[in-house]
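Training component of the fellowship. As part of building independent skills, the fellow (R.M.) carried out the full modelling exercise for a liganded target. The chosen ligand was magnesium ion. The inputs are recorded below so that the supervisory panel can assess the work.
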Amino acid sequence: MAIISVSNVEKIYNPDTIPVHALKQVNLEIQKGEFTAIVGPSGSGKTTLLNCIGGLDTVSSGTIHIKNIDLTNLTDKELIKFRLNHIGFVFQAYNLIPVLTALENVAFILQLQGKSTKEAHSLAKQMLDSVGLSERIHNRPAQLSGGQQQRVAVARALASQPDYVLADEPTANLDSESASKLLDIMERLNAEQGVTFLFSTHDERVIRRAKRVVTLRDGAISSDANQ
Amino acid sequence: MTIQLGWKNIWRNPVRSIVVISAVVIGVWAAIFISALSNGLTSHYLSSQLDTYIGHAAISTQAFWDERTSEHIIPNEQLAPVIKALERDSLVKSLTPITIAEGMIASATYSSGVQIRGIDIASDTTCFNTHTFLTEGSYLGESYKNQIVLGEKLAKKLNVKLRSKVVLTFQQIDGSISSAAFRVGGIIKTPNSAMDQMRVIVKQTDLQQLLGNATAVHEWSIFLNDAKAVNTWIPTYKQDLQGDLAIESWLEKAPELAYIENSMDLYLYIFMGIIVLALVLGIVNTMLMAILERTRELGMLMAIGMPRMKVFNMIISETITLSCIGAPLGLFLAWSSLKLMGKHGLDLSAFADGLAAYGMSSVVYPDLKMEYLITISVLIFVASLLAALYPALKAIKLKPLEAIRLH
Ligand SMILES: Nc1ncnc2c1ncn2[C@@H]1O[C@H](COP(=O)(O)OP(=O)(O)OP(=O)(O)O)[C@@H](O)[C@H]1O
Ligand SMILES: [Mg+2]
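Fellow's submitted model of the complex:
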């Protein structure tokens, strides 16, 4: 069974004023362990699709099932809880809490899930190890490079043991070396731990490393290929 | 965890946090200090009025109070048992009989209407403190007959000095007008210079003789150990007094003093209200700024799954922490500055002449009422809670997506 199944999703922004048809009849299934890039020109609907799949935005019609839960039926409060326990997020920027150290940032989400500080810290440490940041766990975001910050964000996204990780242009603010290092880590986690990644990108070098590429054009899927 | 995060957030902009803390400190300090000071001023004013001019209670005939003429003397035999009872009363500190005549004082160059008070020195000095304001001469302690004590201002107007002669003119008890020469034996300067011009002091025996009745008394002034106890103390005596005799407390004799006390309470509460309001606005404003700056971060927190309730608690805890640091500091500051001032008093002598016109003396001691202290503490705490509420509500109304999208 697919982890994510998007059926006939339509998204229209501002339906009452200046309607923007951002997603048109999108159908998409993501299986556990996939490593998928969503690509397409600017304005094609990548962010919109990821937001809908992430339970951050509502669809205008159609359904989004995560396993057998229909996201479109959840209340705002249920969605927050769902995101906490089922989805990992990596944003393009402004990802971390500036007053907390790398360790505390990762531990924070575990504490939100109800784990004790001690347990959260030891798990967070493991996660930071696996993204190659064991040396920097007591640094605050401002003391880390952009690439290191994104790796902390990946560690946090994975720490909560989500069903899948969503990343909207995670490398957009990184130089190519940091970007490729981040991709290395994501690939390894995907290969070793079977973590499901779904990310959008403009970057050709990132696209080349995806196992599956879904192309959006004007809000509709124009191609979907394994590579 | 949210409280920890809140605590860390406070120190991301230390200057701003210190501004909020200082605002709380200054607010608490000002509210407490100023209320203690104005309390000190009122009670100081009150006691100086009572001790020098009014007394705590007085017995007289109703007719004397209504008409102020010297024919309405107290029937001494009728009052005697009451005086006995007063002398035995443990709440009563002291009492003194006064003979009073309204009349004129004249020198070669000036004349003026005055109240002539014939006092019994021995008991008067255990009641009133007028004698402590003597600046020249003696307080009716000379050996000659018909000596008079005048206020400094009045002496100046009459253009008289110690040992000068003045003439008092007043109505005798039988209605005929009589004049007598008096010699200035002493000059006083009480805090209330207006009062000094309105009354002169002579020996009771001298006045009684001139009035034509050797036992004439118009008023008994009574001092209690505690002026504030007068309301509970007075009713039994009110019942006991027969005929035209009546007793009045200082609250009845000088309702304006009671009014000052009450209205001071009101002013203080208004004043505190203003301070608290300013504090609330300051806190709300600062916290709103703090939240505005963190919009994206708060959006991210809610996006990754931080419940709104926790975001709410975090913001509240940030604000409350600031006031919980500020309030005790303010209390401490207020306490120490009051302590310091309690030792030396606040010397208003630079304004003493101005104040004297209103009957105040120049050194004031602050007097903090427990009632105010509690009210202020509770007010500030409630106010900072309320001030925390609005920014926190604002924060949880953020839509995570819109907050993240902001650039
Ligand atoms: N909040 C919004 N209100 C109105 N229109 C929107 C909103 N968000 C996105 N759109 C519109 O929806 C369409 C899809 O936008 P989206 O951000 O999903 O594109 P994208 O593929 O992520 O683009 P980019 O590569 O530039 O990030 C665009 O036409 C955009 O203008
Ligand atoms: Mg986008």
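The panel noted the following from the submitted structure. The interface with chain B takes residues 51, 54, 56-57, 77, 80-85, 87, 89, 91, 94-95, 97-100, 108-109, 111-112, 117, 156, 160 of chain A (CB under 8 Å). Chain A has a mean pLDDT of 94.
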